[in-house]
Amino acid sequence: MSEVHITKTYMKNNDQEVMEETKDNTRIINSTGLLPKPEWIKIKFSSDSRKIKRIKEVIRKQNLYSVCEEAACPNLSECFHRGTATFMILGSVCTRRCPFCNIEKGRPLALDPDEPSKLAKIVNMLSLRYVVMTSVDRDDLHDGGAQHFANCISAIRDKNPSIKIEILVPDFRGCRQKALSILTKTPPDVFNHNLENVPRMYHIVRPGANYHFSLQLLANFKKEKPDIPTKSGLMFGLGETNNELIEVMRCLRQHGVTMLTLGQYLQPSRNHLPVQRYVSPDEFIKMKKIAIKMGFTHVASGPFVRSSYLADMQEKGLEIK
């Protein structure tokens, strides 16, 4: 593996430049501005805007948030048209400053104690059979927000006993054991935590996070709840190599993870990390085959795949194209 040294990151003529030196010069780094998008990076838009508008209105009326909107997800139109959404709890302001993420950063407000009941109500209103909950990082809370996750799970199940719930959790930095003790007592149907990228890139992509701690979070939950599937996701295009991604996939399997999502990183704005490469659909298919050979039972792989994209189909192991 070649050593990499980021020597300069700055704005010039509204284009972010990243200068990188490598020993073997194996990676092409975007140092001349934004990469042109290839033809396969085309977002699908639904022709039925009424359903999309209704879901947005229902969510906002309850003062709730969807990660679909907050993170500028490219699948928003398709998912809202299908009548599905991923809810973001614990507020809309994150205590971390990951430079790939479009979520607002800063000092979050106090928790809304009524959020669990409001979330349960909206799940009923939208007649959802599978719900995904994620959150911002809340390093200001003693349990990282784990009890709030548990309260939301309980509230939803009280009104919807047959519903399946997936949670996409933060890393619970500094309170992992406390968070796990809470979530293993009120477990979801799928436990998801994204590694996002390779360990070499963590100081750039996930400052404040720790690759090995994230792996241990997944492994410890699986140890306590062996019958509940664990899941993780990786982004392509941040400066990593395929071999590095394959090694991360191997580590995930060694830590008991059976569900995997692989997707293309898309730069939310010029103020975020630039895309270093666009991975072709054929390459995503190859990576999926590698993952399946490793023993992953559920793999969704493609340019627009995100952790919560068609999560109900992912959970059933159905083909996602």
Automatic annotation (TrEMBL):
<keyword id="KW-0411">Iron-sulfur</keyword>
<feature type="binding site">
    <location>
        <position position="68"/>
    </location>
    <ligand>
        <name>[4Fe-4S] cluster 1</name>
    </ligand>
</feature>
<dbReference type="Pfam" id="PF04055">
    <property type="entry name" value="Radical_SAM"/>
</dbReference>
<dbReference type="InterPro" id="IPR058240">
    <property type="entry name" value="rSAM_sf"/>
</dbReference>
<dbReference type="InterPro" id="IPR006638">
    <property type="entry name" value="Elp3/MiaA/NifB-like_rSAM"/>
</dbReference>
<protein>
    <recommendedName>
        <fullName>Lipoyl synthase</fullName>
        <ecNumber>2.8.1.8</ecNumber>
    </recommendedName>
</protein>
<dbReference type="GO" id="GO:0051539">
    <property type="term" value="F:4 iron, 4 sulfur cluster binding"/>
</dbReference>
<feature type="binding site">
    <location>
        <position position="79"/>
    </location>
    <ligand>
        <name>[4Fe-4S] cluster 1</name>
    </ligand>
</feature>
<dbReference type="GO" id="GO:0046872">
    <property type="term" value="F:metal ion binding"/>
</dbReference>
<dbReference type="GO" id="GO:0005737">
    <property type="term" value="C:cytoplasm"/>
</dbReference>
<feature type="domain" description="Radical SAM core">
    <location>
        <begin position="80"/>
        <end position="297"/>
    </location>
</feature>
<keyword id="KW-0408">Iron</keyword>
<keyword id="KW-0963">Cytoplasm</keyword>
<keyword id="KW-0004">4Fe-4S</keyword>
<dbReference type="InterPro" id="IPR003698">
    <property type="entry name" value="Lipoyl_synth"/>
</dbReference>
<dbReference type="InterPro" id="IPR013785">
    <property type="entry name" value="Aldolase_TIM"/>
</dbReference>
<feature type="binding site">
    <location>
        <position position="98"/>
    </location>
    <ligand>
        <name>[4Fe-4S] cluster 2</name>
    </ligand>
</feature>
<dbReference type="InterPro" id="IPR007197">
    <property type="entry name" value="rSAM"/>
</dbReference>
<keyword id="KW-0949">S-adenosyl-L-methionine</keyword>
<dbReference type="GO" id="GO:0016992">
    <property type="term" value="F:lipoate synthase activity"/>
</dbReference>
<feature type="binding site">
    <location>
        <position position="73"/>
    </location>
    <ligand>
        <name>[4Fe-4S] cluster 1</name>
    </ligand>
</feature>
<comment type="pathway">
    <text>Protein modification; protein lipoylation via endogenous pathway; protein N(6)-(lipoyl)lysine from octanoyl-[acyl-carrier-protein]: step 2/2.</text>
</comment>
<feature type="binding site">
    <location>
        <position position="308"/>
    </location>
    <ligand>
        <name>[4Fe-4S] cluster 1</name>
    </ligand>
</feature>
<feature type="binding site">
    <location>
        <position position="94"/>
    </location>
    <ligand>
        <name>[4Fe-4S] cluster 2</name>
    </ligand>
</feature>
<keyword id="KW-0479">Metal-binding</keyword>
<comment type="similarity">
    <text>Belongs to the radical SAM superfamily. Lipoyl synthase family.</text>
</comment>
<feature type="binding site">
    <location>
        <position position="101"/>
    </location>
    <ligand>
        <name>[4Fe-4S] cluster 2</name>
    </ligand>
</feature>
<keyword id="KW-0808">Transferase</keyword>
<dbReference type="GO" id="GO:0009249">
    <property type="term" value="P:protein lipoylation"/>
</dbReference>
